[in-house]
Automatic annotation (TrEMBL):
This is Phage integrase. It comes from the Bacteria. One of its GO terms (biological process) is DNA recombination. SUPFAM superfamilies: DNA breaking-rejoining enzymes. Residues 159-345 form the Tyr recombinase domain. It holds the Pfam family Phage_integrase. GO terms for molecular function: DNA binding. The lineage of its organism: Bacteria, Bacillati, Bacillota, Bacilli, Bacillales. InterPro entries: AP2-like_int_N, DNA_brk_join_enz, Integrase-like_cat_sf, Integrase_catalytic, Integrase_recombinase_N, Integrase_SAM-like_N, Tyrosine_recombinase_XerCD. Belongs to the 'phage' integrase family. Keywords: DNA integration, DNA recombination, DNA-binding.
């Protein structure tokens, strides 16, 4: 079809009629091209996308961006995937049609990751991101042959999580001078909340009478954005509170309500007030009192304390809000050694 020149701007544009995916007649116009050739090329590319938009002859770059646009990813996750694409995928696969990617290319890519990424677990994450695009092409673009199907996965290196004893926590948390941060860390240690979940709490999430808090959202600690869903589907749950933590929150509620004229429990953050606290401040306070740990250690310490005190692993799964028991066992089963000895002791009776 012809392209046109806009006499008022001296720029070229194309105007084309087409049918969309539902069979409706549509018109596409795009302006601003410096040359006639550029406009013709853009028109041809647009028509190709319409005619072959869901074909496995599309490039890896096209499928990757289609995946980003149509997947329900958090901005933080999307940013990470874009960075991975630009650093590791684009030069090697971006220009290649999906149906032209070979097993040998994928094998070489796996070797590149193993040789150049210091952390095996990071290499595994990048490889998984690559596989996601392949699987997306299989599901939505009709890719018939998976070039990674026979390639050995990158293994996960399991590391035992760090945790601190309750006595150590109770002693060290006293070194946190500000009451706000001290109470935040106490809540996390004695409930196993993730930092994003704890900082997203508003007062309507807390029920003094039932001694519980409701987890249905999380905060992106990089920009204080609140997302109306937790980290995973299984994370959305009710978390019970020990009596002394319930009393701590009840007293905090009265203090905050008395100190703020426009206090509104529907929008007032438990830790922060009208806006959640900055994670950089939280991190600084935590590192000062607990220099050899990271803040996620509080969650591991919660689980470890429960496991070491005989809480059944299936109950622990529920309290940790893990989707699968295998996740709980894979992380904390080493804490159940005494349970194994108790079971074997039946032979000595």
């Amino acid at each position: 079809m012809p392209v046109y020149k806009d006499s008022s701007t001296n720029k070229w544009y194309f105007s084309v009629r087409y049918k969309d995916v539902y069979g409706n007649n549509k018109r596409k116009m795009k302006r601003g091209y410096n040359t006639k050739r550029e406009a013709k090329y853009a028109e041809a590319a647009f028509l190709n996308d319409i005619n072959e938009g869901y074909s496995d002859s599309n490039t890896f770059d096209y499928v990757f961006n289609h995946y980003l646009e149509h997947s329900d990813l958090r901005p933080k996750t999307k940013k990470r995937k874009i960075n991975e694409y630009n650093r590791h995928f684009k030069d090697k696969f971006g220009h290649i049609n999906m149906n032209k990617i070979t097993q040998n290319q994928c094998q070489e890519f796996r070797k590149y990751l193993m040789d150049n990424i210091p952390s095996t677990n990071t290499a595994r994450t990048i490889w998984s991101g690559f596989k996601v695009v392949i699987n997306y092409a299989k599901k939505y673009f009709g890719l018939r042959t998976d070039p990674t199907i026979s390639i050995k996965p990158i293994p996960r290196i399991k590391t035992k999580p760090k945790y601190m004893l309750r006595e150590e926590f109770d002693e060290r948390v006293k070194e946190v001078e500000e009451q706000d941060y001290q109470e935040l860390f106490k809540l996390m240690f004695y409930t196993g909340l993730r930092i994003g979940e704890a900082m997203a709490l508003v007062w309507t999430d807390y029920n003094k009478y039932k001694k519980e808090i409701s987890i249905d959202k999380t905060m992106d600690i990089s920009n204080r954005t609140i997302y109306p869903r937790p980290k995973t589907d299984s994370s959305e749950d009710i978390v019970p509170l020990p009596n002394f933590i319930n009393e701590m929150l009840a007293e905090r509620y009265q203090r905050e309500k008395a100190a703020n004229k426009y206090f509104d429990e529907r929008s007032y953050f438990i830790f922060g007030g009208i806006a959640p606290k900055h994670y950089s401040h939280v991190h600084k306070k935590f590192q000062k009192a607990f220099p050899q740990y990271n803040i996620h250690t509080l969650r591991h310490s919660y689980a470890s304390y429960l496991a070491n005190n005989g809480v059944d692993i299936f109950v622990l799964q529920s309290l940790m809000r893990h989707a699968q028991i295998t996740e709980t066992m894979g992380t904390y089963s080493h804490l159940y050694t005494q349970k194994k000895h108790d079971a074997i002791a039946i032979f000595d009776e």
